[in-house]
Amino acid sequence: MMDLREYLHFVTNVQSLEELWDAHTRQMNHYGFDRLIYGYTRYRTGTSLGDPDDFIVLSNHSAEYLQGFLHEGLYFHAPMLHWALDHEGASSWATLANRFQDGNLTPEELKVMEFNLKMQVTAGYTVSFRSVSIRSKGAISLAGRHGLTQHEIDQTWAEHGDDILLMNNFAHLKILTLPFSAPSRALTKRQREALEWVGDGKTTQDIALLMGLTSATVEKHLRLARESLSVETTAQAVLKAALQNQMFVVET
Question: How far is CA 248 from the centre of its chain?
């Protein structure tokens, strides 16, 4: 395990999302949190978190758990997710037991708890990150290792919680700077270059000259970029690619 100083140096210099996530899951495992789900959206509204295909989601949970919790939509009714949407900081899952005992859980929330119990996801913490936009929100679920009680997890947090919270906040801020897209939505080098020139204010004719292509070929790259990003206009494609850090990428 890296100490706090080593971890912060590592995160500062890491250059890929995969490398960061691998190290972060191993770091959290040393504190007893062996299953994590990180989620971030830039498309939140008053009634929605946006298109799930646009979420940044990182997890080392089993495929079975992710199928039920994410792909079948249970996450939308998860009590700790709703807590994260309205709060910042960290919260013990002990609050769920208190709400259950008080009868303050909806039928949908109870289904989530039943699913988590079946999948042995019963103790842990949720960290909700500070947002700088009303349309963005990020949080991470830290599930305790099977066999650990919530009391034991709370004891670990009492001793190391400040460091754990700092590491998760630092990892979150780093994630926001790294390129991310679903495999089906990743731009090719040519599509990215064409969008970058659009972002610089160039016309199709300008871009054709700069890239040594015909105007028709440039239009094709821009059309494919729009399709990859699931947007209607090139301006939307430029914005979305920028939000996903796919613009002006430093080649490694």
Answer: 21
What is the domain extent for residue 98? 4-175
CA distances in angstroms from 72 to 75, 115, 209, listed in the order given: 8, 12, 48
- The CATH number for 230's domain is 1.10.10.10
What's this model's pTM, rounded to 2 decimal places? 0.82
Tens digit of pLDDT for each residue in 145-204? 999 999 999 999 999 999 999 999 999 999 999 887 665 567 899 999 999 999 999 999
Number of structural domains the chain divides into: 2
Same domain, 217 and 154: no
pLDDT per residue as tens digits for the range 12-28: 999 999 999 999 999 99
Spatial neighbors of 99 by CB under 8 A, at least 6 apart, are 79, 105
What dihedral do alpha carbons 105, 111, 112, 114 form, nearest 10°?
100
* CATH code for position 75: 3.30.450.80
How far apart, in Å, do the first and last CA atoms of the chain sit? 27
Beta bridge partner(s), residue 127: 90, 140
